[in-house]
Amino acid sequence: MVTPPDIEAQILRFYHAEKWTIGTIARQLHIHNGVVRRVLAQAGLPKIGRPPRKSLIDAYLPFIRQTLETFPTLTASRLYGMVRERGYPGRPDHFRHLISCHRPRRKAEAYLRLRCLPGEQGQVDWAHFGHLEIARARRPLMAFVMVLSYSRQVFLRFFLDARMENFLRGHVAAFSAWGGVPRVLLYDNLKSAVLERRGDAIRFHPTLLHFAGDYRYEPRPVAIARGNEKGRVERAIRFVRDAFFAARTFTDIDDLNAQAEAWCAGPAGDRPCPDQPERTVREVFDAERPRLLALPNNPAPVLEHVAVSVGKTPYVRFDLNDYSVPFAYVRRILTVLADPHEVRIVDGAEVLARHRRSYDRGAQIEDATHIQALVEHKHAAHQHRGTDRLAQAAPASQTLLMRAAERGANLGAITVGLLRLLERYGAAALQDAILEALVRDVPHPNAVRLALERWREQNGDVPPVALVLPAHVQARDAPVRPHALETYDQLKEQRDD
């Protein structure tokens, strides 16, 4: 609780001028003794009261202070064991309380305010904003934030992951929105930027280095645990959380990004510039924009390149979902080229399929023409196998099928009918019947069947059985020999006698 200034003035006047004691001042002003002691201590007076009593730890304080100066993070329990071996008789809980008063405090580091020239520097970072439920998938909502160090102009774009491709897409979108590129970009120890770091040695991601070469800026890392070097983007992320994302509603990520773009161009640009409070961020940025580097003439598109394997079904798996391809490319290795809205599947320079990108989980995204072509191919293959069998058993069937096709007949039904006749009557009889049907110029299975039936009746053969019993049934049904009827005649004659 803060003591009012008039009370502090009265306490000091009564103590110095009137020589009142602390208790008298407290009673007259109706305040606690501790308030009076605190006001006098803040005024620079020594602590008033009885002299402190001697403690068991006093004899060991020189050793304790020397040890803590050498090992400032040494735990109180370990230090207690050390002084215990040297004869300290106190309890560990009381010792821990005393050590907290004598442990040296880490000196607070002072920082210089970093000044930047217009267009010289920008700072980049990712920020996590929870998760989004998209159908059966739960995806992280990541915010790409870039801020210009001079004008504090903020760029904000949301993505559903923090992969390298989205990291670069954020750069491209920011450069396009600003119409230029800062000369230096500062990066923290992001996995998207830094592959390895040992001391001051940095190994940047080669994809990021190639991208920086295309846009002609310098990627520069900040030191470990040196948040002040990229404090502008840290404050920008906090500003985004409080001023934009808090209590915001949106339908999908596209709607959220549209709102973020409007917010960056509106309220975020209308705030006062921290380094120049008399001007807004938009005004300072308008002066900084001409100092940015020009955009490249032909920037390469940022696409995800993923090699995928096609199994026995015409689908490729990409980002938790399956996308259809032409059936002729099963058991092949293809390439997926994806952006946030479209997935292209290519074989070399040939584009095999285009699909709208799905962020679901376990979904099948199909092109109807791919599935229909596979169905027709399967049907044609079945018909082709039957045609080959007919061609080997009855060569005249090819001529019959050609004439039937000329008349627009259903070749599938004709093939099935001829195969059925082949099973019942055999190859030789079918060949002769087809020739007769061709002579009569009736290319239809009914004409062939009528010829076969006529020949069977002329020869007196039994009708063929279409149903063939299984082998074990045929073996079980053995023929039965009928009894001779002469024995019954002999029995009748004997009765008459």
Structural topology:
Elements: H1 5-16, H2 22-29, H3 33-42, H4 61-70, H5 76-85, H6 92-102, E1 121-134, E2 137-148, E3 154-159, H7 164-178, E4 184-187, E5 194-198, E6 201-204, H8 206-215, E7 218-221, H9 231-245, H10 253-265, H11 267-270, H12 281-288, E8 304-309, E9 315-318, E10 321-324, E11 333-338, E12 342-347, E13 350-356, E14 364-365, H13 368-393, H14 396-406, H15 411-425, H16 427-439, H17 445-459, H18 471-476, H19 486-496
Parallel strand pairs: 1-4, 4-7, 10-14
Antiparallel strand pairs: 1-2, 2-3, 5-6, 8-11, 9-10, 11-12, 12-13
Helix pairs in contact: 2-3, 13-15, 14-15, 14-16, 15-16, 15-17, 16-17
How would you describe the overall organization of this protein?
The chain has 497 residues and is an alpha+beta fold. It folds into five domains: 38 residues; 45 residues, no CATH class; 171 residues, 2-Layer Sandwich (Nucleotidyltransferase, domain 5), CATH 3.30.420; 63 residues, no CATH class; 95 residues, no CATH class. The protein is 45% helix and 17% strand. It is built from 19 helices and 14 strands. The protein has a five-stranded mixed beta sheet with strand order 3-2-1-4-7, with helices on both faces. A four-stranded antiparallel beta sheet has the order 8-11-12-13, with no helix packed on it. Strand 1 and strand 2 form a beta hairpin. Helix 15 packs parallel to helix 17. It is elongated and about 165 Å long. 22% of the residues are buried.
